[in-house]
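Posted in: Structural Biology > Protein-Ligand Complexes

Title: Requesting predicted complex, fructose -6-phosphate in pocket

I'd be grateful if someone could produce the 3D structure tokens for the following input. Sequence and ligand are given below.
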Amino acid sequence: MEVVIKSGAEEAAVPAADAIERLLADKPDAVLGLATGSSPQALYDELVRRYEAGRISFARARGFMLDEYVGLDAGHPERYRNVIERELVGRVDFAPDAVQGPDGLADDPQAAAVAYEQAIADAGGVDLQVLGIGTNGHIAFNEPGSSLASRTRVQPLTAQTREDNARFFDDDVDAVPPLCLTQGLGTIMAARHLVLLASGTGKAAAVRELVEGAVSASWPATIMQHHPHATVLLDEAAASRLERADYYREAYAAKPQWQGF
Ligand code: F6R
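-- Reply #1 --
Done. Output follows.
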């Protein structure tokens, strides 16, 4: 796991944008895994800037979202399908229907989960998966206790996650849906490159477990320690509880330019 500590969230997004720019240059029909929430916003803004500057095109790329609330109206602004459209997809040149998410309005959400796994497999798997991390250590909506081998499924959100996400629902925790459809940890681990972004002191405890804790379903993101190609991009605040922060800084400073991410 490569850990990169930058002064702020915008700076931490740059290496992620570099990795995506390089991937799309090498493989224009790459499959991107897309997180929602606040963590990837600086990255998506940077990708939009590079698209507008003619450096990057998503015209042949495809995307798969990590998760979706179950039962949120099709037009609800916080439905993740609408969030990703607003934050990234509608601002660049993805082809229509090139980005899919789990169907949180399906009559049979479990069947939708199975279909989603199949769609990812049919696309050849995810080349680069963008991730955020919850304050309780979740990635996607794999809450503590999730099987480390889990696949896409219906998952109840913890009270902590609903409280954390109430800020997107006018601070009304009861408006945050109790259920979601989420890629599993096994699904995420099948992506070829994991790129996790975290900023702010609220994430420092989860980041500490992710990078330096024991692998455990109690901190689901720790499964990333088993991934052969995982990049963790942090601002100073999110990195503030790391014991080996100085080493990560030295290692990054000594990294050869050609190596990339
Ligand atoms: C969202 C997702 C979640 C978030 C996490 C952090 O698609 O999969 O795991 O990444 O809840 O949320 P933010 O970034 O809003 O702090």
